[in-house]
Amino acid sequence: MTFIYTLRYMLDPRTNTPAKDEKLIDFVKKGRIDDVAFFINGEELNHSHLTKAETQVWLDAIKPLQKKLSDIGVTTSLNPWTTIMHSDRGYRVNPEIGFNTFVDIDGNKAKDMACPADPTWRKYLAATYAQYASIHPRRLWLEDDFRHYNHTPLKLMCFCDYHMQLYNEKLGKKETRAEFVKKMLQPGKPTKERQIYLDQARQEMIENEHLIEQAVHEVSPETDLAQMTSYPDWHALEGRDWEKLFKALAGEGHPKVARPHLPAYNEVAPLAYGRNFEEYTRITAAFLGENAEFYPELESYMYSPLVKSNAFTAFQIITAALIGSQGILLNLYDMMGNGINESWHYAEMLADIKPFVNQLLENRLPLDHLRGIKVLVDQDSSYHLQTTAGKNVEELLPHEKNWASLLGAFSFATSILPVNQKTSLENEIIAVSGQLLRNLANDQITALLKKNLVLLDGESVQVLLDRNLGNLLHVKNAEWHPVRTNYQSFEQADGHIVDGVKNPRITMLQHTGNYLKIEYQPQSDVNVWSFAYNSIDEKLGNVMAVIDQHIIVLPMDQDPRHGWDSQFITYKQGLLQQMLDSIKPVDYLIGMPNVKLLVENDGQKAWLANFTLDGYQQIKWHLAAPLVSNEATIVRKVGNSVKKTKIHINVENGIASIDEPLAPLETIQILF
Ligand SMILES: [Zn+2]
């Protein structure tokens, strides 16, 4: 199988030369590129929305290269850089094209960015996509400016006169933009205004993609349409319905094709990347499911080895396998027309890892069939969550990614599970954070909590209390203590030992949220594992607890900037492992912080990926279930080839020991 390398490439129609074309062809051959996605009207060469004649200049420049690439078995795709437009940057819509621009939540009017419901823009965009389709690209991409937010410096849209008219019609009364927005964000029960906004944003994007799909497939039925995506929590804030949106774009007989965001435009610490990979890349992939095709975004803005090493680039490409990617979109070179830079040695690096990524794809990771703790997410959370101040649109962002990054760093086997009002789970291990439970009915919540091993955060507990479901946790009384108010200072696991440290402490002061102090009903089955203390060592109340031997509570919310950073310490990791061990066996790695473990449902395949600069001499895997066999094959990259090693695994007390090393940044596969 071939892991598709798609090179995103800027050809400047005005200054391109045969020498640049030759370099491109040479790079494609040496770097084993399968597909070239040509930018159209991108970044520095972007000149607002183009007329038909201006667009044709780009297509005419691409066509001769398309032929040359085809001669060497390489496909051509297109990456037009604008749909709505990323930001204004001094441009205005050409009056000849003449569509209306959007107005943001504060009433600021864009000059060059489209209103996504504007009928003229819709017609223009569909016609322009039909024009792109005239060269029959393999894949035709929609940029990630196809969204209602991140159009800097403007904020969430659209609140133009036309949209206000649409909203008011559905509302059945007339409100000004300011009145409508205030209601949208208002604390307490979500308003009709909020629902109307989200419904409209959701629906208009689906309609737009459908219009584009119809126009494109009339001209080029064989072309796959593909969508670039951003942060899933922000997409929730524009009401994104992942399945409907991607189906509308794909059309009949075509796959859902996505470019999930890979959260490192520059090189960052691999363990920090590991957290964001869970929060953005894995959650996005989960919303689309394993039937979708993924080509994640490898980008090195501002480009060159000065912002990202080849080793880190290779690590990002290889770990794309952890969402079952079929390939990758490579944004390795700038968008100004410099073309290929051979001195950066990308071709060698790409060729070097190609056999390994091809091999990983032979046993593609089955996104919807993974073992371990299921982190629940819901695309509809912005519909139901409650704001606290009602001042900022960020209050509508779901807080559902915290367990994913924490448990992934703790080396627990996890998967991400999108839920809805029909979801019913039994005998699973689930992790819930933020206000996700507000999406569900009381009987559904009760069943989830009763029939599964459940991890809950403080915000989830608050939802239960608001719903008068505190009895499910035997809560007698609960009260929030804001962080840094001279109350709680640290958490202490009295009577427990982690890493040889007795009664280990974890901060409750820095990079942490507020503390929900829960008092439990007397004689209830609650085992408290840690307690809050103040700065003079006085015990204040309960922190982590196991309720009814199957519900674990971490009674904190999140810091607005730092999320759950305070929890990323091996004391908490060890504590959580011990708490889970006291209930039932789960899959995790021992003594390998920041190594991700993914395990197929049937235990036939496992993936280990080291998101640190430390290497490990041995693999120790705490098993949730007996191994399917004690004989296995380890697949790893050695030099520029694939090495398969037969191994024998010793299991003692439910822990598998594998005498094989794991190098810094290395990913391996274990096949049973
Ligand atoms: Zn509008």
How would you describe this structure to a colleague?
This protein is α/β, with parallel strands linked by helices. It folds into 3 domains: 311 residues, TIM Barrel (Alpha-Beta Barrel); 205 residues, Rossmann fold (3-Layer(aba) Sandwich), CATH 3.40.50.880; 84 residues, Golgi alpha-mannosidase II (Immunoglobulin-like), CATH 2.60.40. A 7-stranded mixed β-sheet has the order 13-12-14-15-26-25-22, sandwiched between helices. It has a 5-stranded parallel β-sheet with strand order 3-2-1-11-10. A hairpin with a 5-residue loop joins strand 4 and strand 5. Zinc ion binds next to helix 4.
Short description:
By secondary structure, this protein is α/β, with parallel strands linked by helices.
Q: Which tags fit this structure?
A:
3 domains, Immunoglobulin-like, seven-stranded mixed sheet, 672 residues, binds zinc ion, globular, TIM Barrel, Rossmann fold, alpha/beta
What would you report as the Rg, rounded to the nearest angstrom? 26 Å
Approximately how much helix is present in the residues? 25-40%
Structural class: alpha/beta
Q: Considering the protein shown, what is the CATH homologous superfamily of the largest domain? A: Glycosidases
Q: Helix count, per DSSP?
A: 16
Beta-strand share of residues: 15-25%
Distance between the termini: 20 Å
The mean pLDDT is 98
The total beta strand count reads 35
Quaternary state reads: single chain
Counting structural domains, the number is 3
- Report the sheet with the most strands, covering strand number, pairing sense and barrel closure: 7 strands, mixed
* Shape assignment: globular
Output the CATH class name of the largest domain: Alpha Beta
* Unique bound compounds: zinc ion
What CATH calls the topology of the largest domain is: TIM Barrel
Strand arrangement, largest sheet?
Answer: 13-12-14-15-26-25-22
> What are the low-pLDDT stretches, counting only 5+ consecutive residues below 50?
none
Please give the CATH architecture of the largest domain: Alpha-Beta Barrel
